[in-house]
Structure to design on (724 residues):
């Protein structure tokens, strides 16, 4: 079975882009979520190998979602995908347990590099 | 004065300088976090120590200053007391300056090669120094990823910048981590995105490199220079001998000569190493300088330094000290905006200057970058046009690099009025002159609103340099390897004309072509379409190809000044003797290119 990834972002467009990039890179998209609480639910349901997590989302922020997911599974591997200019939030997300970050607008190669690195950890 | 007392004074001076160096550094930290009791207590303790030392030698003024400051700090140093106020910090700075001045006027000089880092008390654990790439996105986030990665493998003892600073998001490109098992993490971090260099700093090793006390002796600088010259001569005569022996084919000599050769090489290495001093000797002054000047100009600026442990020839160090200060001054006065302007531009209030040094293929690369307003090339072009340095019809065809080159012209400025700190121009012509005089070159890259980076490429030593040899009309010419990017062979077919100038295409890059014979103003008939040597060089924002002559290998050359009257001819940095005893002129590539570009613009 291949590597299964959960893509979390409130914008459908971003989810589609990320999913395309990851699928092209040989990864399987097991599910998508549009906000933090949905992300936590879907993590529990699917137990993916990796999560890509947006930070600023309605309902529950990415940072809170990371904390919740880490409570469920301390080994969870999370890559933050964030827009430019939210540096301190990204730092907070990393301190909450995310393993790497990618900045929007992203280069496809950057996304794949980050995912590969985090999977190796 | 009796011997004993002289010895005491020498020790006192050395130790006090260490303490002052340390004070200068930690007081800046205290200014940023006035509530840090650990630093307050340390400052207090240092003044207490200084007081005692000065008193026992009878230096009453140093004693009084130290005593006053010790008393002033006393009320702040304990946990429950209030934070240190600005007035006290200012007084501490004044006190440090006064003591520094007083120390300088005592008679025995401080030993060279002594740095404040030796006085560093914070443990003997080695630390890992990390430089992030110049185009790193969200440096603080990258720092957080790195820290997390390290924490997964080993224990972090100390971190610079602190967790809090990283959290606030306003950090630069340098990260220093003291941890228990640094060897474990070096490769891991080096392989990460956006990390440029990772280095392990072992303080114990530093101490060995900078002997103090009984293992070190002071040497007269002139003697050292003479010694190096003599070794240089030895290197040359030895290679001449080798050539003669090779021509004779005498096997008997060859064995002995090989041994002799090896000893000379080793001797050369030793003398080169003796002359090496760490860049820290000048880099350590920068923090204080940046603090003082930025305050005076109403700006907020932080400086970070990378690679202060890199060692260079001491004459080189002297040569680059002024240019570096000049460039930092430029960054603060012209580059970095006021806090208010920065906020409007959505930048952090506090500007950032990064000074980094690294060694690349035997050369030293020093870069000074700021995140200020950058240089608008349109303004440069306008100023150049006003000064009739460029004709209207040329404007379209100038590249960004060509436009930025005007900044290095004598007296060039885009400002109408002079200011107190940096005068009229940015004075890059002066910087370049000084850097060239030690055999280096200067490059500039800049982005409007994004900041400016000035890169200085320097040879490790001024007097022995690596050169490529090219032959032309039975003469040999040497090209300093600092500027050489690659060598290849080209034919006429690879050349073409572009806007009346000869160019060649190299892997999708168009390079201007200069013929060696033209540069040297020699007559030379090329031999049809046979392959000709081509040396691709990069000099001060300029890449071009020198074509022609014949390759004659590479060698180490001892640079000697040109004897009169040929010292009047421009275009050579000096003369050297090579293996066969023939004199060989060393090309001054920056100057040659400059001369060419004048001719081309027809001015």
């Amino acid at each position: 079975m291949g590597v299964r990834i959960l893509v979390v972002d409130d914008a459908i467009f971003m989810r589609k882009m990320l999913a395309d990039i990851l699928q092209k890179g040989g990864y399987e998209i097991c599910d998508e979520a549009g906000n933090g609480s949905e992300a936590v639910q879907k993590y529990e349901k699917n137990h993916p190998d990796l999560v890509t997590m947006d930070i600023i989302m309605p309902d529950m922020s990415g940072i809170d979602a990371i904390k919740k997911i880490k409570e469920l599974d301390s080994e969870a591997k999370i890559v933050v995908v964030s827009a430019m200019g939210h540096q301190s939030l990204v730092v907070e997300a990393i301190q909450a347990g995310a393993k790497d970050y990618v900045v929007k607008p992203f280069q496809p190669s950057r996304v794949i590099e980050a995912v590969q690195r985090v999977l190796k950890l | 004065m009796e011997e004993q007392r002289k010895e005491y004074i020498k020790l006192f001076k050395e130790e006090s300088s260490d303490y002052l160096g340390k004070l200068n550094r930690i007081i800046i930290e205290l200014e940023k976090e006035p509530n840090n009791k650990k630093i307050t207590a340390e400052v207090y303790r240092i003044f207490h120590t200084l007081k005692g030392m000065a008193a026992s030698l009878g230096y009453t003024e140093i004693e009084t200053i130290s005593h006053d400051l010790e008393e002033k700090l006393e009320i702040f140093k304990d946990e429950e007391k209030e934070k240190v106020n600005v007035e006290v910090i200012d007084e501490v700075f004044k006190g440090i300056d006064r003591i520094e001045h007083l120390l300088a006027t005592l008679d025995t000089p401080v030993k060279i090669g002594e740095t404040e880092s030796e006085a560093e008390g914070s443990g003997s654990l080695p630390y890992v120094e990390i430089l992030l790439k110049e185009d790193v996105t969200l440096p603080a986030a990258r720092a957080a990823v790195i820290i997390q990665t390290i924490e997964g493998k080993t224990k972090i003892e100390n971190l610079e910048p602190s967790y809090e600073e990283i959290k606030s998001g306003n950090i630069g490109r340098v990260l220093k981590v003291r941890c228990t098992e640094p060897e474990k993490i070096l490769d891991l971090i080096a392989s990460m995105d956006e990390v440029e260099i990772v280095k392990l700093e072992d303080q114990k090793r530093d101490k060995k490199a900078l002997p103090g006390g009984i293992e070190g002796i002071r040497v007269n600088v002139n003697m050292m220079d003479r010694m190096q010259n003599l070794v240089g001569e030895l290197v040359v005569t030895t290679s001449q001998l080798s050539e003669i022996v090779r021509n004779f084919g005498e096997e008997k000599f060859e064995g002995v000569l090989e041994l002799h050769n090896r000893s000379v090489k080793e001797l050369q290495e030793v003398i080169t190493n003796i002359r090496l001093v760490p860049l820290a000797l000048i880099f350590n002054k920068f923090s204080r300088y940046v603090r003082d000047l930025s305050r005076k100009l109403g700006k907020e600026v932080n400086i970070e330094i990378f690679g202060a442990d890199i060692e260079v020839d001491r004459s080189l160090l002297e040569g680059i000290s002024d240019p570096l200060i000049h460039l930092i001054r430029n960054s603060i006065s012209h580059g970095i905006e006021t806090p208010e302007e920065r906020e409007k531009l959505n930048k952090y209030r506090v500007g950032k200057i990064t000074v980094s040094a690294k060694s690349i293929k035997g050369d030293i690369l020093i870069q000074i970058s700021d995140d200020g307003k950058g240089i608008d090339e349109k303004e440069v072009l306008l100023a150049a046009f006003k000064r009739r340095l460029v004709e209207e019809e040329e404007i379209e065809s100038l590249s960004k690099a060509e436009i930025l080159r005007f900044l290095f012209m004598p007296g060039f400025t885009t400002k109408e009025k002079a200011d107190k700190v940096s005068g009229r121009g940015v004075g890059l012509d002066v910087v370049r002159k000084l850097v060239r005089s030690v055999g280096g070159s200067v490059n500039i890259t800049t982005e409007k609103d994004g900041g400016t980076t000035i890169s200085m490429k320097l040879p490790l030593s001024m007097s022995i340099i690596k050169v490529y040899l090219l032959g032309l009309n039975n003469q040999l010419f040497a090209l300093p390897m600092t500027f050489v990017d690659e060598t290849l062979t080209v034919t006429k077919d690879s050349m073409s004309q572009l806007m009346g100038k000869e160019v060649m295409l190299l892997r999708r890059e168009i390079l201007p072509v200069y013929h060696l014979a033209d540069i040297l103003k020699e007559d030379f008939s090329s031999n049809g379409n046979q392959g000709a040597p081509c040396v691709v060089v990069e000099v001060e924002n300029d890449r071009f190809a020198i074509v022609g002559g014949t390759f004659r290998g590479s060698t180490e050359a001892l640079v000697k000044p040109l004897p009169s009257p040929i010292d009047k001819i421009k275009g050579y940095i000096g003369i050297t003797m090579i293996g066969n005893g023939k004199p060989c002129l060393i090309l001054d590539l920056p100057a040659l290119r400059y001369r060419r570009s004048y001719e081309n613009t027809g001015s």
Observations:
- The CA atoms of residues 189 and 569 of chain B lie 51 Å apart.
